[in-house]
Design a protein that fits this description.
Elements (H helix, E strand, L loop, with lengths): L24 H14 L7 H5 L18 H20 L22 H23 L17 H25 L8
Helix pairs in contact: 1-4, 3-4, 3-5
């Protein structure tokens, strides 16, 4: 979790899941959450933002920019992984905040590192969408090993966090002359 320290996992009773009824508002909420996580709707889609960034620009920081595309991609990947794992794994321990959420270098160590990070981002995003889409997941139950969080809250924070930093990558790409989309 990015905004606050997480407690070490404690053994607690699992929350009971409430299955969604077809056509219910619960099902509609799940569908809209999955769409929020995966589609741009009001902004560019993550796949368009992260694709076609020239290799030489992935570690370039324009004047006055706080981060490179590599730093932002890795931050997105790490934070998203953390929120997903916290949501489903009572033994998960979050990285140290804030340094554990950022890469140590401005430039990706290799082309493979960039591609691996993008694939991990996609995998974890897909898994979060599957988690919120699963009618056995109680979106409103407090996460037993948390301190008041719910799956719904984690999904919304994840979508918000991703949108914020993906927007930064779009701005960075514009500053580098590597963004041609009409967004």
């Amino acid at each position: 979790m990015i905004s606050a320290k997480r407690k070490k996992p404690a053994a607690k009773k699992k929350a009971h899941a409430k299955p969604a009824q077809p056509g219910s508002s619960d099902q509609a909420l799940r569908e809209q959450l999955a769409e929020l996580l995966g589609k741009g709707n009001a902004h560019a889609v993550w796949r368009d933002i992260l694709s076609s960034i020239p290799e030489a620009m992935r570690g370039t920081k324009p004047p006055r920019a706080p981060h490179t595309a590599w730093q932002l991609l890795e931050h997105l990947r790490i934070a998203q992984w953390d929120m997903l794992e916290f949501s489903r794994n009572p033994k998960h321990v979050s990285p140290e905040f804030p340094q554990g959420y950022w890469p140590s270098t401005e430039m990706p160590p290799s082309v493979t590192a960039w591609e691996t990070s993008v694939k991990a981002f996609e995998r974890d995003l897909t898994e979060m969408k599957e988690l919120v889409s699963n009618p056995k997941t109680d979106l409103f139950a407090r996460i037993p090993h948390g301190d008041g969080q719910t799956i719904l809250r984690e999904a919304l924070v994840l979508a918000d966090h991703n949108a914020y930093h993906l927007g930064q990558i779009v701005l960075l790409r514009r500053m580098l002359g590597a963004w041609t989309a009409a967004y």
